Amino acid sequence: MAIERTLSIIKPDAVAKNVIGQIYSRFEAAGLKVVAARMAHLSRAEAEGFYAVHKARPFFNDLVEFMISGPVMIQALEGENAIAKNRELMGATNPKEAAAGTIRADFAESIDANAVHGSDAPETAANEIAYFFPASQVFSR
Ligand code: RTP
Ligand code: MG
Fold first, then answer.
1. Cα of 57 to ligand 2 centre, how many Å?
2. Which SUPFAM superfamilies does its entry note (predicted)?
């Protein structure tokens, strides 16, 4: 299986809950390595740019407001099948529908405050990693 990279964000609700370490432990237990990381409080422009694909959706403004409501932890993860593996660890977008034992089932409150973001395809993963990290700050290992 291919070694991939994916972009993960621990959203403001999960940072506020102080579960960054618990979420990192799940990445590591699943064989995903953190190859880049930084904490940030996104500006409105950064959040709008990151979620530009959802600009026309009715939930766009709420999504942006939530993403700028507090600091986030941003990381690139690397490993076999990393994109799908991370989304499996995350669980469904709506925590009420997320499988037991997933990050969203265990830590998320609502479809807005849903604890984590994960890239959904190889091309979006590459674009999202480049959005937050210059190549010199990604450490393949
Ligand atoms: P993410 O991009 O954050 O990893 O989440 P996702 O792929 O599971 O979901 P996506 O469809 O990409 O939506 C991005 C974020 O927008 C919020 N959302 N709200 N109210 C709604 O119907 C609705 N749908 C999506 C969620 O916070 C979702 O994570
Ligand atoms: Mg998405």
1. 12
2. Nucleoside diphosphate kinase, NDK (SSF54919)
CB atoms within 10 A of CB 44: 11
Q: What is the rounded CA–CA span in Å between residue 102 and residue 57?
A: 26
CB 135 within 8 A of CB 96: no
27 annotated as a binding-site residue: no
Name the residue with the closest Cα to ligand 1, atom 11.
Answer: 93
Q: How far is the CA of 141 from the centre of ligand 2 (A)?
A: 26
Task: Give the number of the atom of ligand 1 that is nearest the alpha carbon of residue 92.
Answer: 8
pTM of the model: 0.97
Does residue 104 have a known ligand-binding role?
yes
Strand order in the sheet with 3-10: 33-40, 72-80, 3-10, 116-118
- The reply to whether 93 sits in an annotated binding site is yes
Residue showing tokens 């990445």: 27
Q: What is the mean pLDDT of each run of 10 residues along the chain (141 residues)?
A: 95 98 98 98 98 97 98 98 98 98 97 98 98 97 79
Return d(Cα 54, Cα 112) in angstroms, integer: 14
